[in-house]
Amino acid sequence: MSEIVNEAVVALNEKLSGADFGGTAKFNITGEGNIMMDSNGARAGDEPADVTLTADVETFRAILEGETNPTSAFMTGKLSVDGDMGMAMQLASALA
Fold it and tell me: What's this model's pTM, rounded to 2 decimal places?
């Protein structure tokens, strides 16, 4: 498993702690791997999800560090969303 994915799992679990996130989401970090997120938190994995968000390492880090708004990343084409757009918006709120 990629060190970037491992670091991201830790960071996402901190950010999602206490968030009311129902459903499943997958974050695909291009060239690094996948992270699954659900009501139990984040973990490395590649399973079916309600929504899949795909971004490169730089964009993903910027979102996690609060330097880039997920909605802005989507609008500028740096983040792609496949699946339930409402779930993606819920996740974006939890990460903000």
Answer: 0.89
pLDDT for the residue 1: 60
Centre a 10 Å sphere on the Cβ of residue 5 and count the other Cβ atoms it contains.
20
pLDDT at position 22: 79
List, in order, residues 6 or more apart from 82 with CB less than 8 Å away: 51, 52, 53, 54
Distance CA 27, CA 48 (A): 11
Which of 56, 57, 31, 34 lies closest to 44, judged by CA?
Answer: 34
Comparing 17 with 52, which gets the higher pLDDT? 52
The residues near 96 (Cβ < 8 Å, ≥ 6 apart) are 66, 69, 70
